[in-house]
């Protein structure tokens, strides 16, 4: 954590970037795979927040992100509910994946620091949880289980792989200095 | 109190989570039950602006489709604007119109398929007197000897010596026929003569062309004692072996008595406008060969006949 105002500004900029990218570009019909896969790329903002972000701040950021998207796409509270659930479960998953000797103060959600197994498990768990919640809420019930399941699976893979690529391309390659 | 605060702080995560989750679900339920009634919806100005940007960005990805659609639409509009090549083409013969008046008139004539050519009704499908429709494919009017080319030939039954008439009147006579084309000597030929008759009183004369004015011909050999009236119709005479009797040639426009001649000099305005001639018919007067034979045998040289 770089500390202070700079870090907050940096995270705010990241959030705006992710949201703008999703709203303006990725949510368009051109980026939907086979009518089944949506790339919810804004999850990158929430998932790649610093590890030691306070839980209340995480939840509020999730709610803020979700409600913004709900406002834009007229979906009521689907994005918000799923995002809040995601942010609530994130610390649990982080705790589950804690390395043998705990997180360092400079550890962050970074594939180059935490290793690819850690990152894959982290992304797979959280993204699939989010997508299950998201698509079930979006549908309102489990009326068409087949297609919903297909949507969940395809979208999870799509979003997960995209976030993995973002990790690999855009995150600093500092080795864990342990 | 302290315990309460401790409790709240200890369980802040799940409490905030519960509050936000309930709020989200409340918004979700409200949104689905009252459409657009929710506070957070896309009908406010800021979100509208965002959605505008979104459209602008996503339009870039549709440029190919949009361009293709525009191209197709352009092609369609061009097609509407410019008729295809074929639409300017004219039929190679004049069709008999199908409307009820024409059909009734044709039925009244006894021979249902007859044509009125130069005031003369001619059977269209009489095997003895074939009537061949044709289209003029080239013509001249400004020379001394003028010819026209038609799009029919011996394959259609054209024989040298047949007459050519249009709906307005006499056009000329077949000179040479190939398999698919025919050259005809038009009335506007220095050597062309046509035996003619003034329809009002039956005076016989000869039509010649002086070689200067493509709209007028000269009616010669009308005796000076005959009375002439301006506007009289001049038709082909029965002496004619090329044209059927009574096909219009033109109307008398002026006549003068020249002192050194025994005949009137009569200017006849041609009924046919050669500059706009398109559809013509080839006609046969009668079994001409037989008549020629008997006349030659009697030692008579036909007086009024085109000899181009």
From TrEMBL, chain A:
Keyword entries, A-Z: Membrane, Transmembrane, Transmembrane helix
Domain of life: Bacteria
Transmembrane segment boundaries: 15-33, 40-64, 76-97, 118-137, 149-171
Protein name: Rod shape-determining protein MreD
Organism: Hymenobacter rigui
Lineage: Bacteria, Pseudomonadati, Bacteroidota, Cytophagia, Cytophagales
From TrEMBL, chain B:
CC terms in the record's Gene Ontology section: plasma membrane
Matches recorded under InterPro entries: Cell/Rod_1, Cell/Rod_MreC_2, MreC, MreC_beta-barrel_core
Originating organism: Hymenobacter rigui
Organism phylogeny: Bacteria, Pseudomonadati, Bacteroidota, Cytophagia, Cytophagales
Key words, A-Z: Cell shape, Membrane, Transmembrane, Transmembrane helix
Protein's UniProt name: Cell shape-determining protein MreC
Record-annotated membrane-spanning stretches: 12-29
Residue ranges constituting the Rod shape-determining protein MreC beta-barrel core domain according to the UniProt record: 136-283
Any Gene Ontology biological process: regulation of cell shape
PANTHER family registered for this protein in UniProt: CELL SHAPE-DETERMINING PROTEIN MREC
Pfam families: MreC
Record-stated family: Belongs to the MreC family.
């Amino acid at each position: 954590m770089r500390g202070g105002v700079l870090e907050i500004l940096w995270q705010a900029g990241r959030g705006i970037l992710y949201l703008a990218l999703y709203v303006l570009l990725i949510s368009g019909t051109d980026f939907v795979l086979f009518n089944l896969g949506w790339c919810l790329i804004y999850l990158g903002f929430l998932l790649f927040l610093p590890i030691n972000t306070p839980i209340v701040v995480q939840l509020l950021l999730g709610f803020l992100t979700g409600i913004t998207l709900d406002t834009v796409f007229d979906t009521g509270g689907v994005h918000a509910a799923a995002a809040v659930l995601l942010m609530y479960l994130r610390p649990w998953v982080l705790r589950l994946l804690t390395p043998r000797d705990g997180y360092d103060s400079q550890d962050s959600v970074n594939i180059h620091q935490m290793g690819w197994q850690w990152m894959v498990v982290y992304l797979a768990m959280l993204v699939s949880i989010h997508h299950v919640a998201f698509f079930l809420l979006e549908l309102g019930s489990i009326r068409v289980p087949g297609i919903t399941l297909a949507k969940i699976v395809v979208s999870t893979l799509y979003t997960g792989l995209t976030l993995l690529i973002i990790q690999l391309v855009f995150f600093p390659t500092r080795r864990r200095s342990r | 109190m302290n315990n309460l605060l401790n409790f709240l702080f200890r369980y802040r995560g799940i409490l905030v989570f519960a509050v936000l989750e309930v709020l989200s679900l409340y918004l979700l339920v409200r949104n689905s039950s009252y459409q657009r009634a929710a506070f957070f919806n896309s009908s406010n100005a800021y979100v509208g602006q965002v959605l505008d940007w979104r459209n602008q960005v996503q339009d870039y990805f549709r440029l190919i489709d949009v361009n293709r659609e525009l191209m197709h639409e352009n092609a369609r509009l061009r097609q509407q604007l410019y008729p295809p090549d074929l639409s300017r083409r004219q039929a190679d013969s004049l069709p008999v119109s199908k409307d009820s008046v024409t059909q009734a008139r044709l039925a009244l004539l006894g021979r249902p398929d007859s044509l009125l050519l130069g005031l003369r009704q001619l059977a269209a499908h009489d095997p003895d007197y074939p009537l061949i429709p044709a289209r003029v494919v080239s013509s001249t009017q400004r020379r001394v000897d003028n010819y026209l080319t038609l799009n029919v030939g011996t394959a259609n039954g054209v024989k040298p010596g047949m007459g050519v008439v249009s709906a307005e009147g006499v056009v000329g006579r077949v000179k040479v026929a190939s398999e698919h084309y025919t050259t005809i000597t038009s009335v506007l030929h220095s050597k062309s003569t046509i035996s003619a008759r003034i329809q009002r009183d039956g005076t016989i004369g000869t039509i010649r062309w002086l070689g200067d004015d493509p709209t007028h011909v000269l009616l010669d050999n009308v005796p000076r004692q005959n009375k002439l009236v301006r506007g009289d119709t001049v038709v082909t005479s029965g002496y004619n072996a090329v044209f059927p009797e009574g096909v219009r040639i033109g109307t008398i426009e002026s006549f003068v008595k020249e002192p050194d001649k025994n005949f009137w000099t009569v200017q006849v305005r041609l009924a046919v406008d050669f500059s706009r001639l398109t559809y013509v018919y080839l006609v046969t007067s009668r079994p001409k060969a037989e008549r020629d034979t008997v006349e030659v045998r009697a030692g008579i040289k036909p007086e009024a006949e085109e000899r181009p």
